[in-house]
Design brief:
Elements: H1 3-16, H2 20-33, H3 38-51, H4 54-67, H5 72-85, H6 88-101, H7 106-123, H8 144-152, E1 157-160, H9 163-170, E2 175-178, E3 193-194, E4 197-203, E5 215-216, E6 219-220
């Protein structure tokens, strides 16, 4: 490992441990010596995003991507920043770019699902013909940490099969998941609970006049 790589590893360890000021100082020192160090640009951008400095973050990530255009993690980070700024179309394009490079990159796939829900699907709530008028908090959600914090304050999560369902299940929050009628057999079509998540209940077909299935614990209403 060369000297710059060692210094970057130390900065990243500090970053992950929550010592943001020292990590930022070390990233900046690396970039002063090597302005085109793509990883330092990327990680400094991630740090600035957590601090809310998204405009500067976007500039750093764009610079990093000009140097390493096939970096899936950097594209995913750029999508997160675009979403935080409010540019959802570009956020979606960034996640799609990451997935075109690596279709198995889970972070980009999960973030893409969240971005799409905050985009066109969320806009439907403002349409005049929409009878349901929930309290929309999505403008306060910028990443999965924000999503988790919101979920923890809820009594129940109702969702389709997205990353939000898995996050709620992992947090042991009661969650109802609506699946398509022709859902994959590997999701255990003969039962509505899920062994992985004790609080999750799923439905892949309508069971009432409204087309919804409701549960209280393991007992259907």
């Amino acid at each position: 490992m060369n000297q710059l790589a060692e210094r970057l590893a130390v900065a990243l360890d500090l970053h992950q441990a929550g010592h943001m000021a020292e990590a930022e100082r070390r990233y900046q020192a690396i970039l002063k010596e090597s302005p085109d160090h793509a990883d330092a640009l990327h990680y400094l951008g991630v740090l600035l995003h957590r601090r809310g400095d998204n405009e500067r973050d976007a500039q750093l990530l764009d610079r990093a991507l000009s140097l390493v255009p096939d970096d899936t993690a950097c594209w995913s980070s750029r999508g997160l920043v675009a979403g935080a700024i409010g540019d959802l179309p570009y956020s979606v394009r960034c996640y799609e770019q990451a997935l075109s490079i690596d279709p198995a990159f889970a972070n980009a796939r999960n973030s893409l699902g969240t971005a799409l829900q905050k985009g066109a699907a969320c806009d439907q709530l403002s349409q005049l013909g929409c009878a349901l008028k929930p309290h929309d908090l999505t403008n306060n959600i910028h990443d999965f940490a924000d999503t988790a914090a919101l979920i923890k304050r809820l009594d129940l999560v109702i969702t389709v099969n997205t990353s939000v369902a898995h996050l709620a299940g992992a947090l042991d929050k009661p969650v109802w998941v609506f699946l398509p009628a022709n859902d994959d057999w590997r999701r255990m079509l003969d039962r509505d609970d899920r062994p992985r998540y004790s609080g999750m209940r799923c439905s892949s077909r309508p069971r009432s006049a409204t087309g919804l299935s409701l549960w209280r614990g393991r007992k259907r209403l």
